[in-house]
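Q: Give me the 3D complex with zinc ion.
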Amino acid sequence: MLTRAILLVIGPGFLIAGCWFLTVGRSSKNVQAAPTSTSAPREFDVQELHAGVEAGLVPVDSAATAVDRRSLTVACDEQARQIGEQLDERDRIIVRPPFVIGGDLSEAELDRYYVQTILPTKRALELAYFDRAPDMPLTLLLYSNERAYRDAAWKLDRRNTTNYYGYYVRSEKRIVVNIGTGEGTLAHELTHALGHFDFPNMPEWFDEGLASLYEEADFSEDGLRLNGLSNWRLNHLLSAMQKRRLGTLESLISAREIREEKQAVEYAHARYFCLYLQERGLLPFFYRKFRDRATTDPSGLRTLCEILGEENLDPVDRNFRQWVIALYEQVRSK
Ligand SMILES: [Zn+2]
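A: Here is the predicted complex, encoded as structure tokens.
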């Protein structure tokens, strides 16, 4: 340990000295131009440096950021008051800007979802994709069972929710989920909600592909990355492949929106294509390039061809389908 510490301390000195000798050895003309940084450091007060460590860790909040944060908190408090008037009397609400979190759970349970699911998911998604954080309140309503969820969805949005466990109302910036079915739906809807702040014109194929990727995912050990995993949607994809009814990747990506009658297959198609990009380490990279060029390439097709180094998506499509079959064989053998 001691040897290692010493090496770390004196190592760079040797390196600099080594460079110096190389420079001198190769060309004596360069001697005059040798960097002055090789000289010993000036005298510093180590005690002062230590004292500065803690001070340096206090965030320097610019006046503008502080005002933004305060006004977001005020907006969240106001949103909590408004939504409170529409909810059941037994429902609870907590404010964790930019989130207003409510539902038929206790405040402690709502806070547990905030700390264990909502906040880490937001952090991981922002690290990988989103550069623009929400500047308006996002309301998340969590219900413990089918009945409470169904009643709330009907009361708030006149929605009949028999076919799904959660939804996001973009105009209201509000998510409603049946959390009793697990946290996958919450992660799905949260990805939509946060994504729309960062990439408002995200086309539907990618919006649904990315959101459904995270409905089944785990965190890396340091908690900073989310990795999408295979899930039940694989059956829809394989079934369409077996019946030879799966459209091309190009038709999925070029379509303006996902067709309602093909929703199950197209969600699965988009999700697994996102998983395929994730496995190749390209997903965050593609997202940022795609978002930044969306005015000239709104579907992302050209950006995709470019980063994959292909003229068109045909070879990628073939490779993708083979990857899906291999994935199926891998999942089946587990
Ligand atoms: Zn969705």
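A quick observation: Residues 188, 192, 208, 211 surround zinc ion (CB under 6 Å).
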